């Protein structure tokens, strides 16, 4: 499914529990609440930390990029696609994730919130 900017997009409901998730929100947003298994690389540090993604991303798997509402993650998805990677934007971001009843944890391990 495509979204207005031409970036491949997937809805939260289509994600499986073991799908690889890349959270590109800033540190304060991540600390308040995130998907437990997500890899966190803030968009502001993304190019400098790109190697972390290539080390941790599944070799043949898709990278699901998420932010708060879908704007920043769309930009990162477009960049990854340009690099030849299989990446999709998670439509609605963490707001949609939380609204769908998916678990959100805080950095301390307790229940989190999307800010």
Automatic annotation (TrEMBL):
Entry-linked PROSITE patterns: RHODANESE_3
Record Pfam families: Rhodanese
Rhodanese domain sequence ranges: 15-106
Source superkingdom: Bacteria
UniProt cross-references to InterPro entries, sorted A to Z: GlpE_sulfurtransferase (IPR050229), Rhodanese-like_dom (IPR001763), Rhodanese-like_dom_sf (IPR036873)
Protein name per the record: Rhodanese-like domain-containing protein
